[in-house]
Automatic annotation (TrEMBL):
InterPro entries, alphabetized: YlxR (IPR037465), YlxR-like_sf (IPR035931), YlxR_dom (IPR007393)
Domain YlxR: 9-82
Xref: SUPFAM superfamilies: YlxR-like
Protein name per Swiss-Prot or TrEMBL: YlxR family protein
Top-level taxon in the UniProt lineage: Bacteria
Organism: Anaeromonas frigoriresistens
C-alpha cells in the first residue's frame, strides 16, 4: 500500500519544517485583515509559525509578518494574535 504524504510547512520565524497540523496559520485576506486560521482553510495569504510563545515574540521583534504579507502589521494586530494563540493553549 502507498503511504499517505504528510504536508510539511516551514515556520517563518525559526525556519523549521514541521507537519502542517503542528503549526499555526496566520492569514491576511483581501480586505487586509490579519487573523489566526485554526482550520487552515481560510481564503487569503497564509504564513505559518510554531505554536509557541517564543516564535510569536520573535516574529514581532523581527517583523516576520511584515515580510510575509508585504505590508506593515500594527502592534494591535500582534496583540490580538497573542490573545488568540494564548487562549488556545
Amino acid at each position: 500500500m502507498k503511504t499517505k504524504k504528510i504536508p510539511l510547512r516551514k515556520c517563518i520565524v525559526c525556519n523549521e519544517r514541521k507537519e502542517k497540523k503542528d503549526l499555526v496559520r496566520i492569514v491576511k485576506n483581501n480586505e487586509g485583515e490579519v487573523f489566526v486560521d485554526m482550520n487552515g482553510k481560510a481564503n487569503g495569504r497564509g504564513a505559518y509559525i510554531c505554536n509557541n510563545k517564543e516564535c510569536l515574540d520573535k516574529a514581532f521583534k523581527s517583523k516576520a509578518f511584515n515580510r510575509a504579507f508585504k505590508t506593515n502589521i500594527s502592534p494591535d494586530v500582534y496583540n490580538s494574535l497573542k490573545e488568540e494563540l494564548y487562549k488556545n493553549e
